[in-house]
Amino acid sequence: MNITVEVTIAAPIEAVWAAWTTPEDIMEWNAASDDWHTTSSSVDLRVGGAFSSRMEAKDGSMGFDFAGTYTKVVEQELIECAFGERSLRVEFRQGPSGVTVRETFEAEATHSEEQQRAGWQSILDNFARHVLKKQST
Description:
By secondary structure, the chain is an alpha+beta fold. The chain has one domain (2-136): START domain (Alpha-D-Glucose-1,6-Bisphosphate, Chain A, domain 4, 2-Layer Sandwich), CATH 3.30.530. Helix content is 29%, strand content 45%. The chain has helices at 13-21, 23-29, 113-136; strands at 2-9, 36-43, 50-57, 63-74, 78-83, 86-95, 98-106. Strands 1-7-6-5-4-3-2 form a 7-stranded antiparallel sheet. Helix 2 (23-29) crosses helix 3. The radius of gyration is 14 Å and the shape is globular.
């Protein structure tokens, strides 16, 4: 089963793309809630290149790595990647209201569809806030 989440950001495509693909930016926005954070991130943005982000609870009680390999990259349009046995497609579409970022990912069996959708949407909403904050400074 695939799950899709999306957000539209009133910012230039260049700013949205940069925030999505820059490790320092990823560490700022990649968390589903305020009690989690990303402590490290790496990006080798090319087909066959690897990515990794370390997500941890701020209280140190747990953490995990989200890592995989890029399978398709179209600058400022599309990123596809594989992580474990699953895949992720991220589309960047310029429109009259800004850039729509749409993520479609294969669901996993541990958490409910609703939990997965809510978690991924929360991270995407954090991403949008991060981009807008950077644009205002």
